[in-house]
Amino acid sequence: MKKIQKSSELLWVFGTVFVALGVATCSKVDLGVSMIAAPAFVVSEALSRLWNGFSVGMTEYIIQGLILILMCVIVRKFNWRYLIAFLVAVIYGYTLNFFLWIFKGVNFNAIWLRWVMLIVGDIITAFGVACFFKTYLPLQVYELFVAETASVFNLKISVMKSIFDASLLVLSIILALTLFGDVATFDWATIYYKSFHSIGLGTVVTTFVNSPLINVCSKFIDKIFEPTARFTKLEKVFRRN
């Protein structure tokens, strides 16, 4: 099979679209979103009670903006490319809002179907993340934070990613338990078919299947695409130290 040439920029677009589509799909089944997406969904749910116009997408890029500021403090430097990463977060936020709007009237009632759709959403998200890793264009703030802080503390990317993911999971749980004042309503018996403010058994499942799915999707992409740059001058700008 002949590979699709000069597709790095196309894969960036795929990354943005498929990650947003996958997250939106997982959110609709109400089994718990991933630890990366959870803070935005929890905070958005809390703030929407005060302001109906406060969307998940807006919350997403605001949180990424705060993480970007924290990263600059930790690494003690600022680079103009950091702002591009925030712009990517804004684009992703609006794309996520679009898919959430598309799915507004969609409901998955059967429990078995919801679990199937959770896995489908995880696969779509993993494909999008794998696409991101094949492009030279800026990623979102989450990946940038991991890369920059790992460099500062001389840690492996995988180690820093685990620390980062665990931190977001703990943060999400704390937010879910403190922002709504309804901890007493939580019932362990419902955890396999209902999330508690976007945190649930689906969050755990997604955590375990995420990396293997990304690896499988990455190999699939390598068979179809040749992720070289179509715009070589633009590539030089972003790859320049």
How many strands, which pairing sense, and closed or not: the largest β-sheet?
Answer: none
How many beta strands in the DSSP annotation? 0
Helix- and strand-based class?
Answer: mainly alpha
Q: What is the domain tally?
A: 1
Question: How would you explain this protein's 3D organization?
Answer:
With 241 residues, this protein is mainly α. The chain has one domain (8-239). It has nine helices and no strands. It has helices spanning 8-28, 38-48, 56-75, 80-102, 111-132, 141-152, 157-178, 201-224, 232-239. Helix 3 (56-75) runs parallel beside helix 6. The longest helix has 24 residues, at 201-224. The protein is globular. The model has no long low-confidence stretch (mean pLDDT 89).
Produce the secondary structure layout.
Blueprint: H1 8-28, H2 38-48, H3 56-75, H4 80-102, H5 111-132, H6 141-152, H7 157-178, H8 201-224, H9 232-239
Helix pairs in contact: 1-4, 1-5, 2-3, 2-7, 3-4, 3-6, 5-8, 6-7
In short:
The chain is mainly alpha-helical.
Main features:
241 residues, mainly alpha, 9 helices, 68% helix, 0% strand
